[in-house]
Amino acid sequence: MVASMGRRERDRVHAVRELLEANIDTPPTLAELSRRVGVNVTTLSQQFRQAFGYTIFGYLRVRRLEHAQQLLRETVLPVSQVAYRVGFSNPGAFATAYRRHFGHVPRDEPRPIAADGGCSPIH
């Protein structure tokens, strides 16, 4: 995918991916991304999809969910806090997106034991 692109286009889509990764919880708008890399929205969207196989915000959604899974497995944060931390404003929408992507709800993810020896909070 990326190999068939010119250097300028590759650099552009990689810059956008880096911006998304750095701002996963509050990403720039598509218009802002296109301004930052100096190309119109349509061209940027087409090049990003060609390079990575996802729309820009499809990529962002997958990365948010992967980051959420990591937080659930490695922290004792409540599911609602994980949802907010990765950029979802509604824990219910987060749970639905999580289930669609991973095949189970966030509360079914293996969690670490809380430091006090009790069960980690789920909500």
Automatic annotation (TrEMBL):
Keywords: Transcription, Transcription regulation
Organism superkingdom: Bacteria
SUPFAM superfamilies linked to this entry: Homeodomain-like
Residue span, HTH araC/xylS-type domain: 14-112
Molecular function GO labels: DNA-binding transcription factor activity; sequence-specific DNA binding
Organism: Nitratireductor aquibiodomus RA22
Pfam families: HTH_18 (PF12833)
Signal sequence, renumbered to the chain: none
Entry keyword annotation includes S-adenosyl-L-methionine: no
Name the UniProt record assigns to this protein: AraC family transcriptional regulator
Transmembrane segments annotated in the record for this chain: none
Matching PROSITE patterns: HTH_ARAC_FAMILY_2
Listed InterPro entries: Homeodomain-like_sf, HTH_AraC, PchR_regulatory_protein
